Every structure is written in structure tokens, then in C-alpha cells.
Amino acid sequence: MSDDPRRRIPRTDTLLADPRFAAAAERHGRDRVRAAITTAQEAARSGEIAPEDVAGQALSRMPAAPSSLRRVINATGVVVHTNLGRAPLSEAAVEAVAAAAGYTDVEFDLATGARARRGAAALDALLERVPEAGSALVVNNGAAALVLATTALAQGKEVVVSRGELIEIGDGFRLPELIASTGARLREVGTTNRTHLRDYAEAVGPDTGCILKAHPSNFAMTGFTSGVGVDELSTLGAPVVADIGSGLLAPEPTLPAEPDARTWLREGASIVTASGDKLLGGPQAGIVLGDAAIVERLRRHPLARALRVDKLTLAALEATVAGPTPPVLRAIRATANDVAHRTRRIAEALGTDVVEVDGRVGGGGAPGIPLSGMAIALPAAVAERLRLGTPPVVARVADGRCLVDLRCVPEPDDDALLDALRAALG
């Protein structure tokens, strides 16, 4: 037995005392490190690896980062890319999240030592940007804001909505089913393509909980169409819940047809609901702005606690709203000339062509609105190699070509992108 190589397999406690494993335990947790050691020891006992290789094998099983999520370079030209996490946070928001990761005064008044309004600074930042709102509330996503509003205002009652606004959002979720889940009844008015003020007026009555105005942000309807604006709906006497979807707080000249919170509140919306991680450019969140009494009614509803956001979201949202222009708006406002020099430099280094392309807002915002730009044209097969590289680069495949669009690529990443492209081209 003295010559049995299995006797040379290092003990678990010996390996855990090794500084390399101690550091790994600090980063990934002791249980995860212990599991990797056990797997490597079993491999040595079965003869798959030598006892001397146990430590190296266990360390190789440790992930390179604490999270399995991998940072990717978005070269698709789609700014708010749902599959890539929608809005990239600004540097200010990232710094705010890191600072809030420990203990914070998220719900504590340091001056008095008493409990305070949760996330007061983020809410105040929103109200400063949208002075038309009497109050603000933040929940965990845009759909949650709409669910909370219809539950608090119309549970057991009717929600009056145009048939042309009964939209389906990503992953098969449909507005009628969302509203039905709140215990409210849908009262559909008008037709798919045309709805008039009289249609709403005939439907509003004692059973009306609210009128819902939902911006169909993920599609556009053209031709023989008509709709009713918030300014007209606000004359019917029922609360108007206006869902702008995309999260613009104020008009954006680049997207003149996209609704915004300030405009719809000025037109008479009781409350406006929106997303925080689309055109607002912040973390995933649902924002409610509007009449103070109605917002307070939503805040006091039992469902609000289940939809509450954490301190990291509040920190990122405050930094986004009060800070510099977020990356999303910079990317949307970028013109072909803004990325021309960078695109041509990389294309020349690779000896390939540059072509004109149209980017997209994405995330259900400004459907059909092109964002003029340019891209590096490569063989279609390169797209897969780019995705599997380090760092992963996600490009667009169209017309039999792989198109690498720099609209959403931060300029400091240009050299890493060029290296990835060279590696993918072999």
C-alpha cells in the first residue's frame, strides 16, 4: 500500500490552507472551492489525473469571475438589446452600485436616527427631472408598474383600453393577460386600427377603474388609423394610466414620435408608468410618476412591497437620472460621422470594407426608426467565431455578411475589438 499513488492525493484541509485556494474561497465561497477539490480528488482516485495534478485541476475548475455572466461587446447596432441586458450603465451608475453594495442609509435618517423614506434621493432626482409629477414610485420593472397601477385602481372594476393598444411584449407576454391577472376586467373599445373619443366616452361609467393609454412601442401601425390622445382622455373623468413604455422623461429630438413622461403628464395623465432600463438608460426598474394621491395609493397597496426594488437599483437609478448623459442616449444620438473614423481605422487594419447600415433603438423603442451608421463587412461565418471568442463579440448577420457596427461599442474597447476580429479571421 505504501506505493499506492492514491496515498499522495493532497488532503482537502491542506489545499484549503494554500493561499491560492484561500483567495478562491474569498471570491467564490468555501463550499464552491471544496466541491472543486473533491471533484479533482475523485479524478485522481480513478486514475484520470496524477495526484500531483489535483491542485491545478481544482483551480482550473474555478470560474474566472464571481458571476457566470460574461461581458460582451455589442457590435449589433441595436442600442437597447434585450438579450444583451438592455441598457449599459453609465460609469456614474456603476460607481454608485459599488458604493451601495455594503451597508447604506437606504431607509435610515442619519440626522435623527429614525426610519426614513426608502430611496428618497432617487425619487427626488426623478421629480427634479419631471416637475409635472406630484410624486414618484419605483418598482422592479415596467410591467410591474402597470400591474400595480391597475390592481390598485381597478381591481374588481373595468380597465378601458383601445383594441389597437392590446399589445404583446417580449417572450409572449400579452397586455390583456397581464391586466386580467390583476383582477380587473378589460373593457375594449374601438377597432384595431381606429378608435375615437366617443368610444371611450360610451364605455366610461360607474364600473370604470381607470382608462389605460398604452404606447404600442414595439410596432407601428400605418394607413387608415386614428387614436385618442391623453389630452382628450383626461376630459372623461376617470383616472388615466398612461404607459409610455420606453422611459423617456422628456422629449428626445432624435426620436420625435416617442412619448415622454413630462408631455403626457402635462396633457393630463393621472400617472405615467415607464421602464428605467430602456431609453432612460438605467437599471431595470418600473417608474410611476404623477398625481401624489394616486401614487401614494399605489405605494400603500400590499402588492407594492412584493415589487419593491433593492438599494443597488435605487443607487444606479439616482446616478442615471442625476448624472451625465447615459450610454444609451449617446449611442442613439450618434451619427455615421461620429463612428466613421473608428470604423475605417479598424477596417483598414483588417483590409476589409466599410458599408452603410441602419442601427435600431431596440427594446421596443421607436420601432422602424433607422439610426444611420456604418459597419465593417466580414464573411458571415465570422459571426460565430466572434461570439465564441474572448471577449465575446456579438455582431449582426444580414445579406450573407457579418456586420460589425461600432455604434454601441465604447471607444476604449476598440483595440480589444480589433484583436477579437483578427483572431476570428484567423
Q: Can you tell me about this structure?
A:
The two termini are 51 Å apart. Helix 2 packs across helix 3, helix 3 (30-45) crosses helix 4 and helix 5 runs antiparallel to helix 14 (311-322). This protein has 426 residues and is α/β, with parallel strands linked by helices. It has helices spanning 12-17, 19-28, 30-45, 54-60, 91-99, 120-129, 142-154, 175-180, 197-203, 230-233, 261-266, 292-300, 302-306, 311-322, 327-333, 336-350, 382-387, 414-425; strands spanning 73-75, 135-139, 158-162, 185-189, 208-214, 240-245, 271-275, 286-290, 353-359, 371-379, 393-398, 401-405. A seven-stranded mixed sheet has the order 2-8-7-6-5-3-4, sandwiched between helices. A five-stranded mixed sheet has the order 1-11-12-10-9. Its cofactor is pyridoxal 5'-phosphate.
What is this structure, in a nutshell?
The protein is α/β, with parallel strands linked by helices and 426 residues long. The chain has 18 helices and twelve strands. This is L-seryl-tRNA(Sec) selenium transferase.
* The first-level CATH class name of the largest domain: Alpha Beta
Count up the helices: 18
For the biggest β-sheet, the strand order reads: 2-8-7-6-5-3-4
Q: What fold name stands as the CATH topology of the largest domain? A: Aspartate Aminotransferase, domain 2
How many angstroms does the end-to-end distance come to? 51 Å
Largest sheet: 7 strands, mixed
Indicate the low-confidence ranges by residue numbers: none
Specify the overall morphology: globular
SSE ordering: HHHHEHHEHEHEHEHEHEEHHHHHEEHEEH
Can you count the beta strands? 12
Question: Which architecture name of the largest domain does CATH use?
Answer: 3-Layer(aba) Sandwich
Mean pLDDT: 92
CATH superfamily of the largest domain: Type I PLP-dependent aspartate aminotransferase-like (Major domain)
What is the helix fraction of residues, given as a range?
A: 25-40%
Please identify the structural class as seen in this structure.
Answer: alpha/beta
What fraction strand? 15-25%
InterPro entries: PyrdxlP-dep_Trfase, PyrdxlP-dep_Trfase_major, SelA-like, SelA_trans, SelA_trans_N_dom
Keywords: Cytoplasm, Protein biosynthesis, Pyridoxal phosphate, Selenium, Transferase
Enzyme class: transferase
Catalytic activity: L-seryl-tRNA(Sec) + selenophosphate + H(+) = L-selenocysteinyl-tRNA(Sec) + phosphate
